[in-house]
Amino acid sequence: MKSKKIIMLTAGILLLGGIIIAGAAAAMGALTKTGPVLQTKSFPSEGVFKIDIDLSFDDIYITTKDTSEIKVTYYTGKTKDYRISTEDGVFTMQTMPASELNKRWYDYIDINFRNTGRVTVELPKDLAPEFDLHTDYGDIKATNLQGTVHASASAGDIELERSVFLKLECIAEFGDIDLEDVSADVLSADNSCGDIDFENIVSDSMRFSCQFGDISGTIDAAKSEFAISAKTEFGDCNLSNQANGLYDLTAENECGDIKIKFNRP
């Protein structure tokens, strides 16, 4: 009787070991299959008036070049793909939902050391569309843009440089907002948990709002030109309120400092 129990126990251990080995082999097989693949696609830019990008786990990099096309560079893999199209004047790029990929659990086991979480978009220099940019877990970085921009990141930074906008709206939940050499007729930056930093910005109407973080930067104008409304609940503020300016500046902070300087006397 005792020997029978030993045999059954041994058989059970061997069976369990076989299952573990088979599962590991399947997973390793998944790892040794083709990894992320670099993709590049080009689309005509004629007639495009809106760029709509909505991604889940990727950084968005946008720049301009001497070209007549919209060029997109990105990685696809076993567990990642995108819907990309240009229709009725709207260029659209969206992360494909996991439910549509029909993958097994070990397909999500991946080992690679390349930066496969970046989407790069190159636009013609003279293209001035409406931008609607969003990423859940990634950064948004853009340079030399023009047009109208709404940029939002759930957990990532927003960085814009050397750009001229009609309207700029940046919203970050957990990350920083950085603006450098940016001009906009109307500018707003809202941050829940992170800093708002800017350098050499120009705007007729600007509004900064922060809950947990600092608001700091330089404005390429004179302080006397602005009607200013600034306050912080818990922190320091170097601005005093004033009325009757040509332009408007509003800065509000709940828990953090406000330190804004003007480049002109």
Task: Give a description of the structure.
The protein has 265 residues and is mainly beta. The protein has one domain (10-264): Pectate Lyase C-like (3 Solenoid). 12% of the residues lie in helices and 57% in strands. It has one helix spanning 2-32; strands at residues 37-44, 50-55, 59-65, 69-76, 82-87, 90-95, 118-124, 130-135, 140-143, 146-153, 158-174, 177-193, 196-212, 215-222, 226-234, 247-255, 258-264. It has a 17-stranded mixed sheet that branches. Strand 5 (82-87) and strand 6 form a beta hairpin. The radius of gyration is 25 Å and the shape is globular. The relative contact order is 0.11. Residues 21-33, 105-109 and 111-115 have low confidence and may be disordered.
The largest sheet, given as strand count, sense and whether it forms a barrel, is: 17 strands, mixed
SS-derived structural category: mainly beta
Judging by the overall fold, what is the CATH architecture?
A: 3 Solenoid
pLDDT averaged residue by residue = 87
Strand tally = 17
Which value, in Å, is the CA radius of gyration?
25 Å
Kindly identify the CATH topology. Answer: Pectate Lyase C-like
Oligomer: single chain
Shape category: globular
CA-to-CA gap between the ends? 98 Å
- How many domains make up the coordinates? 1
Q: Secondary-structure element sequence? A: HEEEEEEEEEEEEEEEEE
Q: Quickly name the level 1 CATH class.
A: Mainly Beta
Helix percentage: 10-25%
Distinct helical segment count: 1
Uncertain segments are 21-33, 105-109, 111-115
Beta-strand percentage range: over 45%
